[in-house]
């Protein structure tokens, strides 16, 4: 008899880890229980399973998170390690568990659900691709000393660095809320690095007693003929300190190349890497807006920070419910109905985003380069988040994640090679109606919304990958 388990016992979680190892791991790779300890932690108690014939046959990992967006704090849940015993597939187990996870997230008052996968099961149930990330390749010269800024010293991280390391991570305008033990656990679990037989190497840059930047690099032996490359899992600090730090760490580790990930709002890092080869993709996995009014309410401190940094006020806007799971944006008194997918586009890709219905659902942002080069509102948020420091940059949370084969697809992203964000982008609509824009916004409305969206958001395939 089939039984849905809403609270798995320690033994059942051990069975779940063994099942996930059979599905996702190859011989010699670390256990999923080691790489993703929170998923199988009985003290959290949120992961779900189906038991049949006296054993656990289907599983979905469920972990709660809080995500910082500037001064705002969002309630989010993450799903991962979704698997079913091959002998029990085709019976709808994954669908049952997914919907139960949605109900649980609603009861918990989660605003967002992050899902590690992109399969059609998720897309059919309101989960959409979101955000934009670039993978840059940095070529190095092993053994050749790098030119470092004056007084900058690069060294491996020491355990005495924890407070200063976390302060750098917390200074980013978007990131996962985590304690020092959380940070240490993520570094030790090597969740994404282990998928490629890599390990973490943590380097810091300091001037005197001040820690200025850090990088977490996934590196290790690469089999002959493999197109794997070492990659940065996470970085923190100002981009003009992170980049020389990464280059010097490459030299010390003897790396001939390194992949570094930058989210769409990390403009300073992109400027510094101008001319380096890169590929573009979505953020890892998919996202589902669980409670839009709650999300809008939780974003109010972020909206206020953007408005204050610009010397203005939050726009006259509200979210109005039209029907079950249908909401409209009321902007300056005008009702603008938006579908769940449209809301995802607006929040995470901006008012000029265009959906692509291919398997990757890649979102191209119209005239992004021209808009961001001329006026990017996010540095104002970074200044506010950093307490008014003039040189603070708008950086997001975790950068790196899926180890990349060449400069192409990451293993956590099974959807295939990403496409360039700039390729085939349509021109910006010139009329007041904005008729060439997917979202039903006038040019004036889109211009106002660009100051707030897309939201800065942490890369979801970094240290906290689930």
TrEMBL record:
The keyword Transferase applies. SUPFAM superfamilies: Acyl-CoA N-acyltransferases (Nat). Residues 394-438 are annotated as: Disordered. Keywords: Transferase. Residues 3-155 form the N-acetyltransferase domain. One of its GO terms (biological process) is aminoglycoside antibiotic catabolic process. Residues 394-412 have a biased composition (Low complexity). This is GNAT family N-acetyltransferase. It comes from Paenibacillus albicereus.
